[in-house]
Amino acid sequence: MPIIKKHFSLSPLNDNPVVMSGNNITGGMSHKDGFPTIKFSVPQQEALLETQTLHLVGQFLVKESDGSIFDDAVVQNNDNLMNGVAMTKRTALNIPNWGGIKNVIDKVVIQSKKSLVEVSSAINYSQFEGLVEAYHYNKDDYLHTPLSRSLASGANADLVNRKVLSSVNHVAVGSIPNAQDRMVGQHFSIKINTDLLNTLPLHLGQDKLGGCLITIHLAPDSAVFHCRHRSRDVAQQPNCNFAQGVNYVLKNLKLEGRYVIPTAQENSAYPSQVSLNSRLNLINDVQSSINSSAYTPQLQFVKSMVNLYLDNDQTNNTDKNANNFRHPVGHKANQQAKNGLRFPFDYKTILQPNFESSYTRSGGIGAGDITPSALSVKGSHVGDVEVRKQFERALLGGIEAYHSSATIDLLNDSITEDYDTTGATADGVGNNCKPNCQGIGADFSFGMGGIQNLVNQDYNLTIESGVNTGSALLPPSRNNQPLLQQTFVRHQSQLNFSNLVKVI
């Protein structure tokens, strides 16, 4: 019997169409204007949801604090004026490198329609998804489809990402675009990646999932937008606070995919439970130069620990890129353990050299100590190869990336921008479009499906760094503040369709 597949396109249950009055926009889905959640209902039926085809599609608009749409005609006249006195919000406002449009999603929750029980939840969705994306694609990949469909541009964000803030350029110069026009707004298409939507086709029948309700919680504007530079000349750039009051609007949203109509034999053979690759998000902080943290995740089948670090002033701050994941400042060493015993590595991982290391010239021109800030290639002062490999394997399930944006060039660019201390100038200081994508990780799978039981058992992490030391050897923008530690626990779970109980 031939396979029967049917395409579907679902509108949100709470759809709020965009309305245009003159140059002002109302309506649409946005965090700011009262529609911070998007709800889709996938009906109960004797069909399989082909999860790999499921995409959220729509259009991305940006509007000013007064409600007016960004005028494409202005952008096209200024899109090469990225610095200096001519820099405006249209040429210097940005969206995150990693993930692009995915950064509008804060959380995804999936419920079964037969009982409204929550069967899947992904918190801090965009951070993890953007990071995984960075380890699957290099900077050249970001300039081609399908990544262009997510409005992401990776390490090329300083050339590309700002342009997605404008409407599609189809109107004459000087004319006002109509937000209701289907050509106005950047088109996007992204896959929704949660544990339940990354598995085999889901049976929507009454004795299985029973249909599902998918709720997408939108992120605040301050988590989506950031300025190109963290420091600008207020006198020469009067619009330097250009991120304040700017907000995004999503329109013409659809959930699209395919149903597969199973045969009687396929129906009877469908499993009573499904195995899921899940993740749990935990939050801690790093307050001192020798900092220890412990988690008891209460999970049976833990595959890896993925630890990300943000400076204390990075979140909800449009002067900083919230997706710039760097080593703890002055990172010197770390030690990971289970119940206090070193594991999965039976040694302390040491970065050598590190930013407390110094070089000494014995004589001649330039004799004396050489500090990290004086190095032309500052990335050469970070002996982090082992840390990078450990993190990569933790993130990707025990394997190493084939294509990746996590290059030595990116590391050097990121560190160079951290050390930029020339002060506020007409050209701007600290390029926020050079973010890193590093962290600290522990892989328990060893690339062979291994797991660890962390029920009533601890995962311990000790970090030696320059956090809160105020060391003159470290970047002044980072050397005297705590860090936020985001930990994603990657684990296996089982969902039983008969009772919708998720075993973790």
Task: Give a concise summary.
The chain is mainly beta and 504 residues long. It has helices spanning 72-78, 89-92, 125-134, 157-160, 221-224, 264-269, 385-395, 408-418, and strands spanning 4-10, 19-21, 24-26, 37-42, 48-49, 55-63, 93-94, 105-112, 118-123, 186-191, 202-203, 212-218, 226-227, 229-231, 247-261, 273-286, 290-295, 299-311, 333-338, 341-342, 349-350, 359-361, 368-370, 429-431, 440-443, 452-454, 459-464, 483-496, 501-503. Strands 1, 5, 6, 10, 11 and 15 form a six-stranded antiparallel beta sheet that branches.
Describe the structure.
By secondary structure, the chain is mainly beta. The chain folds into two domains: 4-269, Adenovirus Type 2 Hexon, domain 4 (Distorted Sandwich), CATH 2.70.9.10; 275-503. Helices cover 11% and strands 32% of the residues. It has helices at 72-78, 89-92, 125-134, 157-160, 221-224, 264-269, 385-395, 408-418; strands at 4-10, 19-21, 24-26, 37-42, 48-49, 55-63, 93-94, 105-112, 118-123, 186-191, 202-203, 212-218, 226-227, 229-231, 247-261, 273-286, 290-295, 299-311, 333-338, 341-342, 349-350, 359-361, 368-370, 429-431, 440-443, 452-454, 459-464, 483-496, 501-503. The strands form eight sheets. Strands 1, 5, 6, 10, 11 and 15 form a six-stranded antiparallel beta sheet that branches. Strands 16, 18, 25, 26, 28 and 29 form a six-stranded antiparallel beta sheet that branches. A hairpin with a 6-residue loop joins strand 22 (359-361) and strand 23. The radius of gyration is 24 Å and the shape is globular. Residues 72-81 have low confidence and may be disordered.
